[in-house]
Amino acid sequence: MSMPYQQTGNQIDYQEIKQTKADLKAEVHFIGQIVGGLDFQTDDGLFCELAIDCGDGWDLLQPGNNKGIQTQTSYANPGQLFSWGHPFDLHFSVSNLIGWPKALLKVWRLDSSNKIDACSYGTAIFPRSAGYHQVTCETWTPTGENLDLEIRKPNEDLATNTDSLSKFDRTLDWRFQALSFYMENPPRLTTLAPLTTDKGDFARRKILNSISNGKVIMEVEVVMKNFKRLSFSGQ
Amino acid sequence: MNTRNYKKDVSDQGSIKGQTNQNFGYSQPQQFQDGISRIQEEMMDPRNIQPDSMFVNFSGVLECGECEDEESLRIEYAVKYGGDDWTYLKTSNNADDAEPSGISQLSTSRNLHSRNIVWNFPFECNFQTKNIFGWPQVVVRLSGPDFMGRSVAKGYGSVHVPTQPGYHERVIRIFKPLPISGFTGFLGYLLGNTAELKNFDKVISSGEGREVTRVKSVGYVKVKFHVTLVNFDKFGYL
């Protein structure tokens, strides 16, 4: 659809306008809030941290600094929502669709002695179609590593390995789990790389053992610009 | 021969009384006596004009809600939006229409079995903008009487205005800030100084500086929105 004329001040003056290349670039807005957490089964306070992971073709125009989000600490009765209610407004300029933005979530626990510790992790993908979406992200807590998988040769299949000693799963050892329980420090991830999909360390995710934890609920409105014009789906 | 000058043809039509010989420089201008030319009509057709801003008009109702065991509550709302690109279009010149906000009546639940409190509080706001960043949010504050009858804050919450046109229902989750310690909380309960947020609309809508606050969920509020968007397709959205 061409817009040949622009009204310039005076009602009867029209002039031809030229569109620049930037007017035809695809842009996406993610507007919403991290509503809260559900089913975490703890009496401590919980807060959530969100980091945005996107590809190289995605440029975060607004807000200027991408330092991530940290919500307030919320307490809840059993069965109640831990309400964080943290709004966010992200404006991306898209030159390459590869690397659609993901939210890397980390839920922290604040216990009664004012000490914080990692509670669980999760990855949520921002919706790919315009409109209102409710995104629910189930989170998991790592319980240990199965380092025997490292020793195995890269091409060797799990089923073909018949060595009984290498099947021993070190992390399900009762000593390790008892120590984590009484010291109240479950294992933590050293990097968020296992949560993303395309950085190099994601392949190491297979050595993790984890236990399920609660879910994080986000509401997102997606507004897209020029997607239809560039024949991208979703708008 | 019939190879007459085209201009001459036009000037030949000037024999109609009162009409001057105007040459628009285009071939075949259809000039009517008291009308506009096709080119002028094309230039004034709104489908051919690029507007210079988009408009967001929404109205809605803060319908009802619940908050822990409260019986009587009042709801206050403020609409927060990104400062620079967005302009709030006032509908009147009153002093209280400078920023979109409002305070409702104090309403009570119907009986002991239900904690549902109905306000049915309508609002309408109109914005002019050039950018989607800073999309408006509705920030609410619930307040009501404490055991001595003083008005204290009972909870806060926020929700973004829907970005798609039409009718939408949303649920705002309400939370209440916790006091620093048990003693502060007890003293606050007696004196009516419970933990509250100063400038609640700025704190809740931006999310900055909330890392060290502690809150507890206390309830919800149901909102209904009706949204109309103007010029969004001309800017490439929608």
Automatic annotation (TrEMBL), chain A:
Keyword Cytoplasm: yes
Database matches in InterPro entries: C2_B9-type_dom
BP GO annotations: cilium assembly
Subcellular locations according to the entry: Cytoplasm, Cytoskeleton, Cilium basal body
Keyword Secreted part of the UniProt annotation: no
Main location: cytoplasm
One annotated Gene Ontology cellular component of this protein: MKS complex
Keyword line: Cell projection, Cilium biogenesis/degradation, Cytoplasm, Cytoskeleton
Protein name (Swiss-Prot/TrEMBL): B9 domain-containing protein 2
Annotated source species: Paramecium octaurelia
UniProtKB/TrEMBL annotation, chain B:
Any one GO cellular component localisation term in the record: MKS complex
Location of the protein in the cell: Cytoplasm, Cytoskeleton, Cilium basal body
PROSITE patterns: C2_B9
Region (Disordered) residue spans: 1-29
Keywords, ordered alphabetically: Cell projection, Cilium biogenesis/degradation, Cytoplasm, Cytoskeleton
Family: Belongs to the B9D family.
Name of protein: B9 domain-containing protein 1
Organism: Paramecium octaurelia
